[in-house]
Amino acid sequence: MSVSGSPVGWGSACGLANLAPAWQDLLAESQRFPVNRLHGWEAAVALGAFDLRQAFARDPERLQTFSQTLHARDGSRLLHVDASKVHADRRVVRLLMQLAEQRQVLALRDAMFHGEPINSTEQRAVMHWLLRSPDAASVPAHLQASWQQVDAVRTAFLDYAELVRAKAHITDVVHIGIGGSDLGPRMAVEALEPCCQPGRRFHFVSNVDGHELDRVLRQLRPQNTLFIIASKTFTTLETMANARTALHWFQRESGGQLAVRDHFVGITTNLDAAAALGIETTFGFWDWVGGRYSIWSAIGLPLAIAIGADGFRAFLDGAHEVDQHFLHAAPRDNLPLKMGLLVVWNCSFLGHSARCMAPYHSGLQRLPAYIQQLEMESNGKGVTRNGERLEYFTAPTVWGEPGSNGQHAFFQLLHQGPHMLPVEFLAVREPAHALDGHHTLLLANALAQAQALMQGSSGDDAQRDCPGNRPSSFYVLDRLDPRTLGALLALHEHRVFVCGAIWGINSFDQFGVELGKRLARDIVPRFASGDLDGLDPSTADLLRRLR
Prior knowledge:
five-stranded parallel β-sheet, Rossmann fold, globular, alpha/beta
């Protein structure tokens, strides 16, 4: 199917209840639940009849209803999700499934996997899933040529990764990018550190703030360093500023005795711009790959160098397993569909405009930032595909810190604050270290926090009273390895897709990001000239103070 062939009014804000009658039914159901008020300063939690503690007592099968283990095709466990402590019941789930059917979410899913231009504002296909397809057999016939291109580039950059791994003198790899070109590889390399080749350090530079690059350069020797410059166009302001500075440092420190082509590689489609900097080795990607979905492409080169070609293919395979599950599983068993619907329920019906992520694993400390971009850049939109203003909350503010650090920072608010914030816990059953007692203590804290949010405590002292009945969900990985990490990230990608389809928005553009970039290009020369013409009074005054 094509977008133009979608149901009339897909994404209509004003008429959504008419197009999807379940929407109105869900609004009525939400009155039974604790709801964060959408208007007013009080932001108090309205008293609803639903209570998690009673819900478990009334429904002996609640755990089974709201939990699911996702298996690979070979029977191995990829991950487990326990959503039994969310504020929903079976009737809500039935209505959410009706909403998904009425909004034709699975039809849009099929369009994505068919290569249709569902990124309607830019008239592009959305095919990051193709980057994960291990063979042509899982790809529609009309996309075979695209898959051949993907496979050729994938083979090339994985071969290059192995060449780098064989060079003992390359002790440092510096990845320069920003946004999706930085967050994905940075997060994954840190997460999979126990799987990384020993004796090599990985550095990531994204911020145009020179302090970040300077701190990295002071640790390096040019003869032992490989720089990866990641920018599709080679025009990204921050990335190219950092790249040029790194190039000047390299030439100065090496005294011109080392060849740029041996120490710089570009991830770009602008071969001329790369060549102008002396970069001869490049790997490209396609306009149907958005930045926040690009870790599966050559953007993942630092990860491939870190964990090897086989490790990177395992990473892709874990994601591919989730792709196949999302594409083929029945709605009642479709985990990305169900998790996406619960996000919609929380945001649009219960008024939860924020969600906390609490990964109880230090390797996943960058995961909240990664999911933050994935979700907020994808679905942080105020208009539908048709350009109509929305009348409901969409993407929540995603934030968080690894446990147990967060317990000693912001969990006070989660337990006793006047408004509810859903929490997503993530724990890994097997540690990648042998330190006695640490992992048991970590897991105990994760379980206890989720339990405390639900159970609460009461007594005579109001200061110590915790009301409980606070929602959370819990993700479990048996181990943190390339395959399970790939599965986890793909699950979140498809969850974001489901939400966007329900809300009728385009999850694959980011025009809100472009405005600030454009204005920055105007302001940069004003620092030298002092020209304040056309600026608002505040910006003009701040520029004057910062020059």
